[in-house]
Every structure is written in C-alpha cells, then in structure tokens.
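User: quick one, fold this
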Amino acid sequence: MNGPVREPYGERQFQVDVDTITKLVIKSMSERGYPPTVREIGETVGLDSTASTFALLRRMQRRGYIEVDENTPRGIRLTGYIVDMKAITEEL
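Assistant:
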C-alpha cells in the first residue's frame, strides 16, 4: 500500500476520504484541466484496488457528492452540493 495508513472503515473515515477526494479533484481540475483517474484517487486515499475505489465513489455518488461515468477513466465530477458545502465550511 502506497497511500496513507487507513483507519477501520466507518463514517469518520468516509468523511476523511470525501474531503481528500474533493481536494484532489479540485486540484487536478485547476492544475491539469481534467479530473484524476480512479487509480489516482485510490492511491491518494490508500486503496490498493480500483474495485474498492469504485465502491467508495459509488457511495459518494449515492450521497450526491459526485457524479461518476464508470465508462470513462476520468469520469468524475463534483456536484454543486459538495462544492457549495466546501465553500461554506471553509468560510466558517
């Protein structure tokens, strides 16, 4: 495993992953003009398999944080909800 050491998975770790992925997508879009790959996301949050990363992304999608096109390697888009909540949180 190349990424960070992960806590046992629960809601707290999920929220940490949501924050990390949100920052990664924003950084990738601003620096490169396109989102990271599923593999890049997995490496960033410490997941070894793309299947585990897709499961995490599907969970985020069910909660309305992102939209995912699984047929595209870089098919991840932040929804307005997560971007707005991020801005509100940073202002507080």
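User: anything notable?
Assistant: The chain has a mean pLDDT of 82.
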